[in-house]
Amino acid sequence: MKVIVIGGGVAGAAAALALRRIGAEVTVYEAYAEPAGQVGSFLSLASNGLRVLRSLGVLEQVRTAGIDMPGQRMWSGSGKLLGDVPRGRLRDDELHSVTLMRGDLVEALRTRAVEAGAVVITGERLVETVTTSTGVQAVFASGRTAEAALLVGADGIWSTTRKLLAPEAPVPEYAGLYSVSGVSEGIGTDPGVFNLTFARHGAFLHLAAPGGRVWWSAQVASPAQPDLTGTDEEWLDRLIALYRHDRIPHEILAATVELHRPTLMHRLAPIPRAQSDRVVLIGDAAHPVGAGQGASMALEDALALARALAAAPPAAALAVYAAERAPRVSKMLKAASDNRDAKTAGPLGRWMRDLMMPLGVRLFYTRATAWLYTYDCGELPTGVLDAGERLADR
How do beta strands 279-281 and 150-153 pair? Predict the structure, then answer.
């Protein structure tokens, strides 16, 4: 079975690897010249995503590229500890959360996919899909065409595949938050702890990184969509002023030595359909979720899709895949919305959150997160990967 994957990021590279595991002939088409470059800042993988990496045989590579992050502490802007919990897992789960740069995750997945026999072609932008008697044809801006039994749209929140599949689909909307990330030096912070501060103007994340550095990300609440122009110095001055009432974020920002450009955070209303008989959307193309689960959900999608295709022809498999993923994705989207609301709360909401969260974390955290972190997509059929790698080595 030939499969075209559109997009070479986390979802696309994971899909290519998973589909090679079931013996599919996979070609990834990526619009950018270097999909594994350092686009964006750090991301986290929770235990549900790490199980997928283990099934795909790439867990140790990702662990090596990232930072082991067993714990998470939540703070008020004044420095009050609101909760101290396992990061991205339940307490007895041996799979600790891993935090790493997005580009390093893509590189690990893409390298493993190519080793397994997938082909990656860069600089090709999809402009049209055409259903054929045997599958689907992809048409690219360069004039190149390709045919396959199946096309997987893994091309992110601004997905071209989604527009072609469902022209009536909603478009992403600004979610009331923008993110600026960076690196600081000379600030002491406990290793292995992912810190989340609910500050006056949004959330602030920070963690100890190699070399005595601190990685941080400011998720700033702003009802009006900001103008993203300006120099690094201007952005840093703006952040320092916004977080001047929040002790720890203010200290970290003042020690910044490297700034990553600001990005807007978006939400996408549920789309009317995420698959046809020959085309399917995965990852952010289908359901941008955020809330620290974007990469993990994309990994789940990739494995679930490959499992479905291993058991049935494309049309039936895509229907099974969509039915399997819909309830979990819907629940995750609700959790992501609640997460955004907590980061954009007004003065009264912040006061109530700071008052109630310590009790809520102690009483309800495990029960509230078990559905997310204990989920297991299962395993792919064994034996195919080794055969594919032997063919790729010839």
Answer: parallel
The DSSP bridge pattern shows strands 150-153 and 2-6 to be parallel
Residues 6+ apart with CB under 8 A from 86: 70, 71, 72, 93, 97
Q: Which residues of 165-189 are buried (b: 16+ CB within 10 A; e: fewer)?
A: bbeebeebeebbbbbbbbbbeebeb
Long-range contacts of residues 243-248, Cβ cutoff 8 Å, at least 24 apart? 243/199, 243/200, 243/201, 243/204, 243/218, 245/77, 245/199, 245/200, 246/77, 246/78, 246/197, 246/199, 246/200, 246/204, 247/77, 247/78, 247/79, 248/75, 248/79, 248/195, 248/197, 248/204, 248/206
Joined together, the tokens standing for residue 185 give 């030096």
Backbone Cα Rg of the chain: 21
The contacts found for 111-114 with CB under 8 angstroms, 24 or more apart, are 111/61, 112/17, 112/56, 112/57, 112/58, 112/61, 113/13, 113/16, 113/17, 113/20, 113/26, 113/28, 114/392
- In this prediction, residue 25 has a pLDDT band, given cuts at 50, 70 and 90, of very high
What's the pLDDT tens digit per position in 75-99?
Answer: 998 888 999 999 999 999 999 999 9
Dihedral sign, CA of 264, 267, 272, 273? positive
